[in-house]
Structures are given as structure tokens and as C-alpha cells.
Amino acid sequence: MPILRLAIPSPLRRPFDYLPPAGMSAEEVSRLRPGQRVRVPFGRRELTAYLLDTCADSELPAETLKHALAILDPQPLLPPSLLRLCQWAARYYHHPIGEVLNAAFPQPLRAGNPHRPSGCPGWRLSSRGLGLPEGALARSPRQAQALAMLQAAAAVDAEDFKQRGISTAVLRSLETKQLVERCHLEAAPTPGCSRTALQPSGEQATVLAALLATPAEFSCHLLEGVTGSGKTEIYLRLIERCLQDGRQALVLIPEIGLTPQTLARFTQRFDASIVVLHSGLGATERYRAWERARDGSAHIVIGTRSAVFTPLLKPGLIIVDEEHDASYKQQDGFRYSARDVAVKRGQIEACQVVLGSATPSLESIHNALAGRYQLHRLRQRAGGAVLPAIKTLDVRRRELVAGLSPELVDAVENTLRAGQQVLLFLNRRGYAPTLQCHDCGWVAECGACDARLTVHRRPLRLRCHHCGAGQTLPASCPQCRGQRLLTAGLGTEQSEDFLRQRFAEWPVWRVDSDSMQGREAMGELVREVNRGQAGILLGTQMLTKGHHFPAVSLVAVIDADALLFSADFRGEERMAQLLTQVAGRAGREGQAGEVILQTHYPDHPALQAMLVSDYATQARAMLSQRQAAGMPPCGHLLVLRTDCSDPRHGEDFLRTLRARAEPALPETASLIGPLPSPLQRRAGKFRFQLISLAADRAAAQASATVLVTTAESMRARRDLKWSVDIDPQDLF
Ligand code: ADP
Ligand code: ZN
Ligand code: ZN
Questions:
Q1: Is residue 471 situated within a structural domain?
Q2: Which domain holds residue 498?
Q3: Does the CB atom of residue 297 touch ligand 1 within 6 A?
Q4: Within a domain: residue 224?
Q5: Structurally, how many domains does the chain consist of?
Q6: Which atom of ligand 1 is nearest to the CA of 235?
Q7: Whose CA is nearest to atom 20 of ligand 1?
Q8: How far is the CA of 381 from the centre of ligand 1 (A)?
Q9: pTM value?
């Protein structure tokens, strides 16, 4: 009797054997192909599994095997190359293959729904709709909403409009205004190219010539171009070639918030069918976009991290924009790096991979210097813009109001009076990070984490930024009944209050994850800001990621000190990236920009480095420090973490694991720990980690295999969870 060897989304790192569905002939079984979905009974549930293989017999006695219930697809939905990619990722990240395959399928298919080929009527923006007249639709919220949906998703299914309460009549009136047009989402028109390409600068032309000269097979490129150097223009040209070759381009961006901007630039340039894939879309919308990528009717696929697993009929080019961004690494469950998976995918599917950033990761610079990636550099800003001048502002003994020194307040005022925009960076949301009793010193702490609660004003609440728990503000001190509860420290809400009052004539746009809720919020904000009126942008890291704000001429970091003393080994790299990216928002068009870093430590070497050398130079210096320390990318890390409600169990588990695994480890790998994680208690669980550092990738993989198989063979208490993280971003 033939056996189906299946991948099942479960924590167990092994395939599962099943008998074919009852009544299926051996002949039919022999025609099954890897990747086909199979419905199976699993424990008391039914699950969607994926066929890995069929084989003659099982190691398990036949009478213990269950029958699969049904074969769900007549053909595998994933191309063999993507299946190989998933298998590689499962091995490399030591993650169960069933869960990895789940990442490659959209939710409705994971749930076992029948596969539905694409093809339904929809709407898209017309060329007139792309260059929207300002405020034209302010009086018609429904029409404005429909337009916002189209701006966020290229083309939208008629059905999706209905689901959001937008009638066909609304769309018809937009059609009458020639802002939208009907389209057929399954239609794969030959993509047209190049409306208004820019004349490449000398540098751009050199880089393009090198990139276009590489043959249509695997090669990986690092595009290291300063902020505003015109990397997007390079991407567009490469995509153009890819489309002309009849192939599809996959473009990864780090954040949903960048979708509208990216999409706008792509739709302006190409008369092609573009789909976007990110977690802000509903399950059916995502499924449809996935299907169009898979059947080849989408020419360009833009997506965040998980889009790296989107099947493509004819892959030709993979671009990873802002490749240094930490959000490419998934931090829970299947802990993969979308950037690294993208490179592997390029290898398997024989296509060009381009990693772009103004502040590349040390990993990518290391690979480029070692000759594994081709390095292309853009050292100048495009279109005649110049890089901003950076200076520190010593705030010691200065009177600070909401974190701003008098000098900074003046600089803001002068910029606004000159009709320009200011960007203020403060990487802490909420009103204040601490609530303290002035009488006895009590501090509001999270009951479930080793962390303080953050005070939020709108709405008024204490919130834990680690576990999400919230509570109302106490009326008096729970310890001494004192009435004087004071906030300490500074968050964006507080600076916003001050700025609104001090600069009442100008708009203040606050950008953080609290103020930017909803999938259209960021796109709307960017459009409003980019109308160009003077005003203040105030926000967290969200603001720094690749956004293009041409009218910003002054950038200030309110509290540069907060970035200085990170315990993590990547702290310095992160800081240099962040400051360079923030600074890079200034002076992107025409006027020269200025960057002010407020600090109590003007002599700190990391800040000094920002003043005297560019990121590229700093990065190469940091790389030699990592080399000396044997740390990534020159050494290879993995972390085994436990989390458990009893702190002793987690530590004991790792201690035993270490004792058992150590004799079998390769010589060039060493273990550190168990150690408590820096934030030891989180959401009521105590966390420990065991770290392995290896000199080369082979030793790191061997070490991972030993640790994972040993951990799997150990009996752990019920509430103890362990996980493995290969190439971790942080040791936390
Ligand atoms: P990056 O992605 O490198 O930060 P962008 O691609 O966003 O830079 O380009 C920055 C600005 O320079 C954009 O406004 C873009 O239109 C402009 N730009 C890019 N290339 C050229 C060029 N060759 N000539 C004129 N302007 C250009
Ligand atoms: Zn008190
Ligand atoms: Zn908490």
C-alpha cells in the first residue's frame, strides 16, 4: 500500500505518514505531486496538510496509520521551486515544514477552502485619478473612501467595494469624473512601460549599466546609495527590463506604511498590473493578489516580509528595499529573515536579487566585501539635492520644555516662518514613560512584565508596551494614598501638546503606531504633508522608514541619548542606521537641509562619528570590530529561548540541554548561558536564553541541529515553551 508523506502545520519537526484517501487507486496515488494539499484527521481535528512525497512503505506499522480524507488540489498550487525554498527554510531555520508551507499559502487555502482561479471584474485608478485634484472629493466621503482603497491597493475587486459598503453607483460617479476605470483583474495585458522616466545621473547610469549587464540568472547585488540618491529610479529601470522579458518582479518593502508611496511611483511609471500583499488587507483580498501573482497575471508584486513566499509563474527579479530593516526578520513563530530567504529564492529560481539601502546591514556589506554580492554605490543625491549638515546640540544645563531646548524651538520657528517643514524624531510613544508618586516614590509597573507602564493621554490610560495590558490611571498612590502622582520622561503625545500650543498657527502631524491606525492613515498623512505647507512632523521610527518628504528642511532628534547606551551587540549599528535615516529625510529637494541632534553627551564617540563620517565609513569600522569579536556577520549566532511561568524550570531546562548537547557540538561552536533574557519577565512568563556562537555557517547549522534534536528529546513541563532563533536580530 503506498503511503502519503505529509507536512502538517504542527510544532513537531517531522513528516507524518497517512494512507491515501479510501478508494484511491495506486495508479492515482502515483500521479500525486509534492505540494498538493491534503485534508487529514489530526488528533480530534481536521487539518490541511501538504504532500511532501509518496513512498512504498512507512516505518510505522500500517494498522496505526490513518487514511487521509481528501486530496484538495488536482495539481500542486506551488511551483516546485517554491516548495524547494520552503524545504530549505525549514531546514535552515529548524522550523516544522508544515508551518513553513503555511507561510506560502493564503489563509483561505490554509483553511482547506477550494482553490479558485482568479478572474473577476474590478476597478482601478485612471491616469487622471492618479494625479488627483486636491480636495476634489472632500464633499463626498464615500467617493473619497473608494479612492483611498484604490490608492492603497492598485486595483480592487468589485466585490471588495461592496463589502465595505461602497455601491456601484459611487464607482460610476467616479467613472463619470474619469478618476477610475473598469478593469478585469484576471486580464494579463502586455505591460507597458516608461511614462516619464528620469534622465539618469552619471552615477545612476554607471550602476544601471552594471546591473543591466548581468545575465538573466542568479546574481545578488547590494545597492548602497545615500538617502535620496535615486535608488527607486534604479529599481524602476530594472523592473522595466524584467517586464520586457515577460517576467514578474517581486518588490519587498519593510512596512505597510510605505505601500501607498511605492505603489504611486510604480503605477505612475508602468502600465502594468500590480498587486500588493500585506497584513493590512483582508483575507480574500490577499488571496486574490496571491492568486494573480501565482497565475502570472500580476506583473509586479509589492509586499512586506511574508510576500517573499508568494509563488510567481515567471519570476525575473527580486528587490528588497531598505534591506537593513529589522522588520524583515520575523520575531515569533517561524523566525525567518525575508531578506535572506529572498537571496536563497533568487538562487533557486535563477533570478537577479537587488538589496538596496542607504544604510545596509553589516551582513550585506560583509557579503559584498567578500565578493558574494556585487556592490554598487551611489554617493550623491539625485536631482541636485545635497546631503544635510549634521550637528549636535549640547543641552546640558539648558531649560528643556517637552524635551526641546530654546535653540531648537528657535530653529523650528525659523524653519516654519520660512515656509518649510520640520521633522522631530522622538522614539517613544504615549505621553510619558513613567508615572511616579511624589510623596513615596512608588512607580506604576506592569503586573506581568519587568517594565514600567506608559502614561497615555488620549485616551487616558496606563499601558504596557511589552504585553499590551492596560489599566485606568489611579486617582491616588496605591502605596501611600498620596495625591501627587507625577509623570516623568517624555513621549510623543506630550511633545505634541507643547508644539500645538507653541506653534498654534501651523499644523502638527504626529506619526506613531497609536496615531496611525487603519490601513489608509499613513498614505493620507503622507499626501497631506506632501502638499508642502509649512508644519511640524513629530514621530517615532515609523517616520524614518524610506518616506519621501520633499518639503522637510529641518530634522531634529529630540533625545539622541536614548539611542546611545544599548546593551545589544547591534546597538551601535542600529543607532547609526536610525540617525542616518532620520537625517536623510531633510533637504531632499532643492534647499539644503539641517539636522540637529540634542544630547547631554556631545563628545560620545558614536555621535562624533555621525558628524565626521558617513554611514558607509562607520559601517566598515563597525564591521572590523565585529570581526575582532567574532560576532555576526563574522560569527554565527543562534538562540534557544525558553518561556515559562516558573523561572526555575526554564533555567533548568536550558542547563540540562547544555550539559547533554555540549559533547556533540562542533569544535568551532561555543555556548553561552543559560542567562535570563534582558526583559526577564514578560506577559507573566520568565524568559531564559542559551546562545550558541559559531565561527562558520556549517558549525552554526551543526550546532543548531544538535541543540534542537536534544531539546526535542527532552521532557519539558507543560507550560514550558522553547523556541530556536537562527541569526537572531536581538538577544532579548
Ligand atoms: P532613495 O530611494 O535613494 O532615497 P529616491 O529614489 O526616492 O531616493 O529619489 C530621491 C528623489 O530624487 C526623488 O524625488 C526622485 O524623483 C529624484 N530623482 C531620482 N533620480 C533622479 C534623476 N536622475 N534626476 C532627477 N531627479 C531624480
Ligand atoms: Zn505614594
Ligand atoms: Zn506588560
A1: no
A2: 385-430+491-627
A3: no
A4: yes
A5: 5
A6: 6
A7: 230
A8: 7
A9: 0.87
